[in-house]
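Duplicate of #3305? Posting structure anyway:
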């Protein structure tokens, strides 16, 4: 058995499914899943807590399953969150180098990063991520890792992601009720995007679109670094609601029909596709009618076109044309819909592909689909952070509640830099 890092626990608090994964990384880089738990989400809407007790119970169910499968107790987790409250901006920091003539060191990177974090944000928000995008040496040489170079001045371009403090407090309270502490909090678009992109996509440009149940997230990469993070308050749950209304059936039946018979493009529905029997609002009846898969897909496509229109507006507003031109990478449960990549490609006139989770080992059966990228990406983020926090060598930073106090009490006290994560490696 190869050597491995200590195990981490990631929790994806989704609007449809709550997932807990326990994993560790071996010396040669493989991510090994030791435990997994999933439970239908309750009390979560559009990525945010709407009912504390129900959300806490769903979290506890997922934790129990993960503990049973791994044979170990879970004391703390890393939490991946979404929601329209997530916002991002890019900022620049700069520091003068000492006159001693020493080359750039880790401490100089930290000083530059700290200067780039200084921005004015809404008092109701907190800084969730401060991610160095790239450095500029003496205002002329761009570098992703300037350590060892000599300079008079060091600049850094930062990507800052903010989140609603109350949304984080609500999530922390649910975890406290469920009996676990929070080790780290990260934005789903950030952690899923890091796992979804591959090869030179960061350099050429890529727009990662997370089609979740309650939200649609966007993560843009340009010139080798993250450039935009946002979250739209529309997702697969809206498609289910549209089908429920259009087919005059329950939401439960509409969800089953969407998963079993839905297509993103009606014209690509197989010509020999059978009629779909409906129970409507009379579950005791065998059938109250039928509908064609073509009509089902027309309803699905209409909502997807609306989502694509909102994405196009974001691209225009935030000048993400380079990321869009590089191609779309689709994650989330909505990416499972047949031909959804074709629809996005044609509508946005750019290449599109479905994201792959990548190499995993262990309990991976339920983590092979694009909706698992958030929890797997969260594990990646935590393991990378844990390896570099003391050395400041660029993997990331984590912040824990000090003095052994509860995470919730720390957040309630207004600790604005709780759960920040830096990443200087690209």
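Output from current build:
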């Amino acid at each position: 058995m190869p050597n491995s890092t200590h195990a981490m626990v990631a929790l994806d608090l989704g609007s449809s499914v709550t997932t807990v994964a326990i994993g560790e990384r071996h010396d040669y880089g493989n991510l090994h899943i030791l435990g997994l738990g999933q439970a239908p989400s309750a009390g979560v809407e559009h990525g945010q807590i709407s009912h504390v007790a129900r959300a806490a119970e769903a979290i506890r169910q997922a934790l129990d399953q993960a503990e049973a499968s791994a044979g170990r107790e879970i004391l703390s987790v890393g939490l991946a969150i979404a929601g329209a409250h997530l916002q991002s901006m890019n900022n620049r920091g700069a520091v003068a180098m000492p006159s001693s003539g020493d080359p750039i060191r880790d401490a100089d990177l930290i000083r530059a990063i700290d200067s780039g974090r200084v921005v004015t944000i809404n008092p109701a928000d907190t800084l969730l991520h401060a991610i160095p995008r790239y450095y500029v040496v003496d205002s002329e040489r761009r570098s992703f890792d300037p350590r060892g170079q000599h300079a008079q001045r060091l600049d850094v371009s930062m990507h800052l992601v903010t989140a609603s403090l109350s949304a984080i407090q609500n999530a922390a309270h649910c975890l406290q009720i469920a009996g676990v502490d929070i080790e780290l909090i990260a934005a789903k678009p950030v952690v899923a995007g890091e796992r979804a992109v591959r090869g030179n996509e960061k350099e050429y440009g890529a727009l990662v679109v997370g089609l979740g149940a309650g939200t649609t997230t966007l993560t843009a990469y340009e010139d080798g670094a993250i450039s935009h993070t946002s979250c739209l308050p529309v997702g697969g749950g809206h498609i289910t609601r549209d089908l429920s209304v259009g087919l005059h059936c329950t939401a439960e039946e509409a969800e089953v029909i969407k998963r079993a018979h839905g297509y993103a493009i009606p014209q690509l529905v197989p010509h020999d596709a059978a009629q779909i029997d409906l129970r409507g609002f009379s579950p005791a009846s065998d059938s109250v009618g039928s509908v064609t898969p073509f009509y089902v897909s027309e309803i699905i496509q209409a909502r997807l076109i609306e989502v694509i229109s909102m994405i196009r507006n974001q691209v225009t507003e935030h000048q993400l044309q380079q990321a869009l031109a590089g191609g779309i990478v689709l994650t989330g449960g909505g990416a499972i819909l047949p031909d959804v990549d074709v629809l996005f490609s044609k509508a946005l006139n750019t290449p599109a592909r479905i994201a792959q989770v990548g190499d995993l080992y262990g309990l991976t059966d339920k983590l092979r689909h694009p909706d698992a990228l958030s929890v797997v990406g969260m594990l990646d983020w935590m393991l990378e952070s844990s390896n570099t926090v003391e050395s400041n060598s660029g993997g990331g930073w984590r912040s824990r509640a000090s003095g052994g106090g509860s995470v919730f009490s720390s957040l309630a006290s207004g600790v604005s830099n709780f759960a920040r994560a830096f990443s200087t490696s690209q």
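Confirmed duplicate; merging threads. The first strand starts at residue 8 and ends at 13. Residues 388-426 have pLDDT under 50 and may be disordered.
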